[in-house]
């Protein structure tokens, strides 16, 4: 039996050498006590940027070459896919913090948190449905408010710092 295990281990190492395993990331449900709304803010900025890129994308002329039409369709599809992925990431990050971190005492201290989370989830869905930059900016604004509340529950004051990203905007961080 140990010979079987060593051969399986050898085979796994060979497969890993040929096709390296990809890293996976997840938040645990232990709970580990490590929560941070930073990822939600970055995801919201990404949604803004994808909407900006979609708005800037020149539509090919009616008599455009097939390869120009294909390039347009490919870029539009990629921008849309990234936008939708990051809209969903906002929802996931906020949902995890809200569901796993926030306590009834937090909700008493910040009674707006449940409504705020509901608004964020709805707004993130809206950003998936359209390409309006103003909708994406509203999503970021709501996520920033959530980040502010989150840090206050930890007794931290917050400040806004420039995101230094293409879409501009700010990040709410503990002071």
Description:
- The chain is mainly alpha-helical and 175 residues long.
- It has a single domain (35-174), classed as Four Helix Bundle (Hemerythrin (Met), subunit A), CATH 1.20.120.
- The chain contains 6 helices and 2 strands; from the N terminus they run ααααααββ.
- Helix 2 runs antiparallel to helix 3, helix 3 (66-101) packs antiparallel against helix 5 and helix 5 packs antiparallel against helix 6 (133-153).
- The radius of gyration is 21 Å and the shape is globular.
How many helices does DSSP assign? 6
Main pleated sheet: 2 strands, antiparallel
The number of distinct structural domains comes to 1
- Output the strand order for the largest sheet: 1-2
Which CATH architecture? Up-down Bundle
- Helix and strand succession? HHHHHHEE
Kindly provide the radius of gyration, computed on alpha-carbon positions and rounded to a whole number of angstroms. Answer: 21 Å
Q: What's the average pLDDT?
A: 91
